[in-house]
Design a protein that fits this description.
Elements (H helix, E strand, L loop, with lengths): L9 E6 L11 E8 L2 H9 L2 H4 L3 E3 L5 E3 L7 E4 L4 E6 L3 E7 L4 H10 L17 H4 L3 E2 L2 E2 L4 E8 L5 E5 L20 E11 L10 H9 L7 H15 L7 E5 L5 E3 H11 L5 E2 L4 E3 L2 H7 L6 E2 L2 E4 L2 E7 L5 H19 L8 E3 L1
Parallel strand pairs: 2-5, 3-5, 4-20
Antiparallel strand pairs: 1-2, 6-7, 7-12, 8-9, 10-11, 10-12, 13-19, 14-16, 15-16, 17-18, 18-19
Bound molecules: uridine-diphosphate-2(N-acetylglucosaminyl) butyric acid.
């Protein structure tokens, strides 16, 4: 490894078990914790990014570590949330990449700043949020994001991409494509609303939850609490059962194929996303293929949500991946649909 500057500490043979929510036992040959942008400049000046191909780790909630990592791992611990601008209607905030996403949501709801309450309890850090355009219960990060700040590892410059330059799509962005391996997200700017907020409670399980409690005019706090309760009932707590949330993306199929599937399987759910395309819940496909709550050795899927792969304790990355492939093959055989991982698979 290239000579690094004195303000960068390298931890040799670092244990990553507690740093990935699937709880996979894996080691990093070298782990570097980044708590200031100056450290990124120092690494750049020492030629680090030219000679190494580091793996960037945030909250570790969307990765499957297949084995020990020989590339240096950069753990992004940049901290801080600030209000940058404020008027009667909205606030513009900056949040650093290392901030825990859910604590940012709590911070906003406590101050009655609206826009991210539907994204409560998504595990991981702020830095990962724009990379996969996190989304839940009818809201995606792209709906509130103004810009993404990143460190360009090719030129050593700090850069900013405006929302429309981030190429956001369903669980996708420029950072997963053209800028992959070339950008380290350092922070985001969001525009949040002040009351009166525009509440987004149309997602089926959310509206049902609120209706059942006779909340007809929900506040952002009501939505926040509802999302927290729904997520807790459907998704396993990574502190108790290793998991990385949805393991696969919801597949998008042609309207024509969807029609054929409905003729064959009757009640198959689908959300029309355009005249020609329909999104199908992967959880339904996995459940119907017989995998919901099913356990094979140390791995399986969650009993309340088939889309979540779980580590019942002590599973290796290879075991989890092999189980994911089995599920993928089984869904392909039954429905002719290829599921793509939503989780980042690290070789
Ligand atoms: N379903 C089943 N069986 C299951 C799971 C789901 O039949 O075991 C069907 C049901 O028809 C249900 C529908 O799938 O009504 C939708 O389920 P859910 O509301 O749980 O949402 P999802 O489509 O499975 C997506 C996101 C989640 C997000 C929820 C809520 C993806 C890959 N996943 O899941 O995101 O929390 O919507 O908005 O888009 C994540 O990305 O890690 C994640 C958890």
């Amino acid at each position: 490894m290239a000579q690094t500057s004195p303000n960068v500490t390298i931890i040799q043979q670092a244990d990553l078990t507690a740093l990935n929510t699937l709880g996979v036992k894996a080691k990093a040959e070298k782990l570097i914790e980044i708590s200031s942008i100056d450290q990124l400049h120092s690494l750049f000046d020492s030629g680090f990014f030219e000679s190494e191909n580091p793996f960037i780790l945030g909250g570790g909630s969307n990765v499957l570590l297949k084995k020990d990592i020989s590339r240096p791992v950069l753990k992004i611990d940049l901290d801080g949330v600030e209000i940058k601008f404020e008027d009667e209607k909205s606030v513009i905030i900056f949040a650093a990449a290392g901030v825990n996403w859910h604590s940012l949501v709590e911070w906003a709801v406590q101050r009655d700043f609206g826009g991210i309450e539907n994204l409560a309890l998504i595990p991981g850090t702020v830095g990962a949020a724009p990379i996969q355009n996190i989304g839940a219960y009818g809201v995606e990060l792209k709906d509130v994001l103004i810009s993404t700040l990143y460190f360009d590892t090719i030129t050593g410059e700090e850069k900013t991409l405006q929302n429309d330059e981030c190429e956001f799509a369903y669980r996708d962005s420029i950072f997963k494509n053209r800028l992959k391996g070339k950008a380290i997200v350092t922070g985001i700017r969001l525009r949040l609303t002040k009351a009166p907020h525009s509440i987004n409670s149309s997602y089926r399980s959310l509206s049902e939850y609120l209706e059942n409690r006779e909340i007809s005019d929900p506040t952002i706090k009501d939505v926040f609490e509802a999302v927290v309760a729904i997520r807790k009932s459907k998704l396993p707590d990574p502190k108790l059962i290793g998991n990385a949330g949805s393991f696969f993306k919801n597949p998008v199929v042609t309207a024509k194929l969807y029609k054929t599937l409905v003729e064959k399987f009757g009640d198959i759910p689908g959300y029309k996303i355009s005249e020609k395309e329909v999104k199908i819940p992967a959880g339904w496909l996995i459940e119907k293929a017989g995998w919901k709550g099913n356990r094979v050795g140390k791995v399986g899927t969650y009993e309340n949500q088939a889309l979540v792969l779980v580590n019942h304790g002590g599973a290796t990355g290879e075991e989890l991946w092999s189980h994911a492939l089995t599920i993928q093959k089984s869904v392909s055989k039954k429905f002719g649909i290829e599921l793509a991982p939503e989780v980042n698979i690290v070789e």
